[in-house]
From TrEMBL:
Domain Transposase zinc-ribbon stretches: 18-63
Domain of life (superkingdom): Bacteria
One Pfam family hit: Zn_ribbon_IS1595
InterPro entries in alphabetical order: Transposase_Zn_ribbon (IPR024442)
Protein's name according to its UniProt entry: Transposase
Organism: Cohnella herbarum
Length: 306
């Protein structure tokens, strides 16, 4: 804990000024230099009259914000707070929304939204990588409970775990995907792996995928134990996660496994800069119309109370 605190304080000192964050984000967004998103011109005028600079293309005159097209687009939170959040998510233990709120001094709602936007970047980044080479897939149970019935406990969640392994069976790249309970006859049934293979495995490796079960003589203990490590991590950091958002937390777990800790912040900053943001209505499943109706009801109740 002391070392983590010292590392966080050192990071905050490194990116204490917005100018430092602006420079780092610029290079993460445009590693080969500025490119206009409209005409791809490499030259721009810098308009520095705002908190964040605008870049006006010399060719088409289109103006581009530094955070446009990133997970930070539309955010009023200072960049240094975003950088601190990205750093904390890049740590092996990571951070939950309440801890983030206290550490970077933002409201819980803002912290919750930042966490999910960073997880969105993680999910998008790892979705670009297909499992290849020696691919092993096994079913498993997240939040496994010891019960005497054949039915899945309400907390138990079926998953498929796939990995690209070396010849010694060591995990190179991992994907864990939440599966529906509706397709399973009982807790010993296995989800159909074919959709997983079609979506997440390189076609050249699909025919040679090694499928195993979470029990029996052919059980791949390395894969099955990943479900226990995942469950432990979810419980330790987040006190458990319900099925609605479980997949993005699984993606975060896999992202941390798939990227070395020494370079994880640089990778996560790059991914945060190149993926579009996800909105609050999209995360909560509420449309803008629903939010407007709710505000209208609150307004009417306030007037009636007066």
């Amino acid at each position: 804990m002391k070392l983590a605190t010292e590392a966080f304080n050192a990071f905050c000192a490194r990116y204490d000024k917005e100018e430092d964050c602006i420079d780092a984000l610029f290079h993460a967004k445009w590693p080969d230099g500025f490119r206009c998103p409209h005409c791809h011109c490499p030259q721009a005028y810098v308009i520095s009259t705002r908190k964040l600079p605008l870049y006006e293309c010399r060719s088409c005159k289109a103006q581009t914000s530094l955070i446009a097209g990133t997970i930070m687009e539309g955010s009023r939170t200072p960049l240094r707070r975003w950088f601190q959040a990205i750093h904390l998510h890049a740590r092996p233990r990571s951070v939950n929304a309440l801890e983030l709120s206290n550490l970077i001094k933002v409201t819980y709602k803002t912290a919750w939204l930042i966490c999910h936007k960073i997880r969105h970047a993680m999910s998008q980044a790892d979705s670009e990588v297909l499992l290849t080479g020696v691919v092993r897939i096994s079913d498993a149970i997240c939040y496994k409970r010891l019960t005497s019935t054949f039915e899945l406990h309400k907390q138990e969640q079926p998953v498929l775990i796939g990995t690209s392994d070396d010849l010694e069976g060591n995990i190179g790249f991992i994907k864990i995907k939440h599966q529906s309970k509706l397709t399973l006859r009982d807790k010993y049934d296995c989800p159909d792996p074919r959709p997983f293979v079609a979506k997440h495995v390189n076609p050249e490796s699909a025919e040679n995928v090694i499928l195993t079960r979470r029990y029996g003589k052919t059980m791949n203990k390395t894969l099955v134990w990943e479900s226990f490590y995942l469950s432990s991590w979810l419980g330790r950091v987040f006190r458990g996660i319900g099925p609605k958002h479980l997949q993005v937390y699984m993606d975060q777990y896999c992202y941390q496994s798939n990227h070395h800790s020494n370079t994880r912040f640089a990778s996560l900053l790059l991914d945060s800069a190149r993926f579009l943001t996800i909105t609050y209505p999209a995360l909560t499943g509420r449309s803008n119309t629903q939010r407007s109706l709710q505000r209208s009801r609150v307004t009417r109740r306030s007037k009636q109370a007066v």
